[in-house]
Specification:
By secondary structure, the protein is mainly alpha-helical. It has one domain: NCX, central ion-binding region (A middle domain of Talin 1, Up-down Bundle). Helix 1 runs antiparallel to helix 2. The protein has a two-stranded antiparallel ribbon. 82% of the residues lie in helices and 3% in strands. The two termini are 23 Å apart. The longest helix is centred in the middle third of the chain and has 33 residues.
Length: 311
């Protein structure tokens, strides 16, 4: 039953995430938000929704390591696995704003999270509140920046917009799917950890984080194939920011999150910071403004090495 719940949870999360992304992008088009900001905020929030639902569900049921491991593992997977695989399929162009501003915000919020949990081995309500405030400030910054940039505006043709009721259907169906999918995935992960005799951290870092990152993979590959590489890279950078500020921030507002596995602080978090640092020179200095197939393959190998040491 553990495998059935796990697979069912991932499939339902995928469907729910897809519906939520469709509804969210439709809403963004109606608000005339730019392509880059759609990737950094709207799509990123929608594709991070599986992580949020899984982390809240796990925390409320006493499986806090799954909450932390899900976010840290997803962020590592976004940079090394998903960005790597997407670049292997098609080399990615990078908007200068991504490495001049967005990457630095991603690194900053990762360090803030690390300091919060390193200080008292727990993420508390007040720390979560600070993270949610940072999330709101980040969204305001992105939207204001979009409004000021004339060339980044999306030309919205009314003929391409769906009816409002269909947009609401996508949004509501996506939310319901994510709720049930997260329940199945967490239950299956806990049972699998017990059957395999491994920690919930390992299951969270590997199976759960990859499962909840599949919407990001789908969104990035589709965006890249359609020639919207800025949306692909922006989605992953934005998703990492949302995973930290929204997923763990909102979850810690609901319940305090104590760090139960010391490996999260001694190995997983430093690995996330190192992999994040590796991405910067690829975007800015090597093949300026491009992430090539070779670099994508290198990121994929880095991810495989990380998983090898986790297991």
């Amino acid at each position: 039953m553990a495998y059935v719940k796990l697979i069912a949870g991932i499939l339902i999360l995928l469907l729910g995430g897809d519906f939520l992304v469709r509804g969210a992008v439709e809403l963004a088009l109606r608000l005339k938000i730019s392509v880059l900001v759609v990737g950094l905020t709207v799509v990123s929030f929608a594709t991070s929704a599986p992580e949020l639902l899984v982390s809240v569900d796990a925390a409320l049921n006493g499986h806090v390591d799954i909450s932390f491991a899900n976010v840290i593992g997803s962020n590592i997977a976004n940079i090394a696995l998903i960005l790597g695989v997407t670049a292997i399929i098609l080399p990615l162009t990078v908007d200068p704003k991504t490495y001049r501003l967005d990457w630095w915000i991603m690194l900053f919020v990762s360090i803030v999270l690390y300091l919060f949990i390193f200080w008292d081995k727990e993420l508390t309500f007040w720390e979560g509140l600070i993270m949610v405030i940072l999330l709101i400030a980040y969204n305001v910054l992105m939207i204001r920046s979009s409004r000021k940039s004339q060339k980044s505006e999306i030309p919205v043709e009314k003929a391409k917009l769906k009816k409002p009721w269909l947009m609401l259907f996508f949004l509501l169906t996506g939310i319901v799917g994510l709720k049930f999918g997260s329940d199945f995935l967490v239950d299956g992960a806990v049972e699998l950890a017990s059957q395999w005799g491994v920690s919930e951290r390992i299951i969270g870092i590997t199976v759960v984080s990859i499962g909840t990152s599949l919407p990001e993979l789908a969104a990035s590959v589709v965006a890249s194939v359609k020639g919207q590489q800025d949306l692909s890279v922006g989605n992953l950078i934005g998703s990492n920011i949302f995973n930290v500020l929204a997923v763990l921030g909102i979850t810690s507002l609901i319940t305090d999150l104590p760090v139960q596995s010391p490996d999260l602080l001694s190995f997983d978090f430093p690995s996330l910071l190192v992999i994040s640092l590796l991405l910067y020179p690829m975007m800015r200095y090597f093949d300026k403004g491009m992430i090539t197939r070779g670099e994508g393959f290198f990121l994929f190998i880095v991810y495989c090495v990380y998983i090898y040491f986790v297991i």
